[in-house]
């Protein structure tokens, strides 16, 4: 009977070790599957998908095939979006300023042309009056 108890003790120890291993595996896998709904949606498109463990600069993705999805954790994706927005804001502000300058310049040209038209119209009226008086 004692022989069985020693075997059962070994079985219990092996089971506890297996449970510890499974718990560590779950802990390791948890960050990778936390955004499973988003990954499911991406993978449902039947395109090639890869996970890059290193951080890619957004310019490097231009070299990738158009049917290649990069599966990145959501926090890293948000960080990329923030970096992209931060890099675009100064350029957009510059373009808006340049557009406003062009609009102001065009408004000045338009006013000047309207003044020339009014001057030409008054000159034309004067010529017509002179013609009427001369006749």
Biggest sheet architecture: 2 strands, parallel
Radius of gyration: 38 Å
Q: What is the succession of H and E elements?
A: HHEEH
Mean pLDDT: 78
- Report strand order across the widest sheet: 1-2
Strand content: under 5%
Helical coverage, percent range: over 70%
How far is the first residue's CA from the last residue's CA?
143 Å
Low-confidence segments, given as residue ranges, are: 48-53
State the total count of DSSP E strands.
2
SS content category: mainly alpha
Structure annotation, total helices: 3
What shape does the CA trace take? rod-shaped
Description:
The protein has 135 residues and is mainly alpha-helical. Among the domains are: 1-33; 34-72, no CATH class. It has three helices and two strands, in the order ααββα. It has helices at 2-33, 36-43, 74-134; strands at 48-50, 68-70. It has a two-stranded parallel ribbon with strand order 1-2. The longest helix has 61 residues, at 74-134. Residues 48-53 have low confidence and may be disordered.
What's a concise summary of this model?
With 135 residues, the chain is mainly α.
Properties at a glance:
two-stranded parallel ribbon; 3 helices; 4% strand; 135 residues; mainly alpha; 75% helix
SSE map:
Layout: H1 2-33, H2 36-43, E1 48-50, E2 68-70, H3 74-134
Parallel strand pairs: 1-2
């Amino acid at each position: 009977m004692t022989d069985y108890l020693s075997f059962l003790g070994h079985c219990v120890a092996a089971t506890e070790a297996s449970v510890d291993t499974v718990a560590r595996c779950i802990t390791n896998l948890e960050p990778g599957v936390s955004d499973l709904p988003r990954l499911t949606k991406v993978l449902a498109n039947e395109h090639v998908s890869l996970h890059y463990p290193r951080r890619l600069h957004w310019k490097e993705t231009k070299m990738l095939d158009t049917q290649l999805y990069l599966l990145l954790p959501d926090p890293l994706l948000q960080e990329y979006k923030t970096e992209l927005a931060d890099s675009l804001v100064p350029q957009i502000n510059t373009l808006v300023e340049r557009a406003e300058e062009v609009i102001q310049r065009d408004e000045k040209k338009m006013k000047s042309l309207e003044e020339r038209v009014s001057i030409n119209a008054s000159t034309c009226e004067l010529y017509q009056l002179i013609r009427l008086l001369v006749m």
